[in-house]
Amino acid sequence: MSEIIFEVTQEADGGFVAECLTDGVFTQADSWEELRANVKEAVAAFYFDQTQRPASIRLHLVRDEVLA
Description:
single chain; alpha+beta; 1 helix
């Protein structure tokens, strides 16, 4: 496995939510820096007993804006 991709959305309160597109990995944080650390920790925990771990982690920030 070469890469794992997370879809990241920003909540109304300013925090971030990250959900893996391929596996059941999910985390959240109040800041982008905290989210990066939480994603790394969540991936390490999810793959702790597997021989193959992702070589890289991609955070894909999705921004949805409604103009009225």
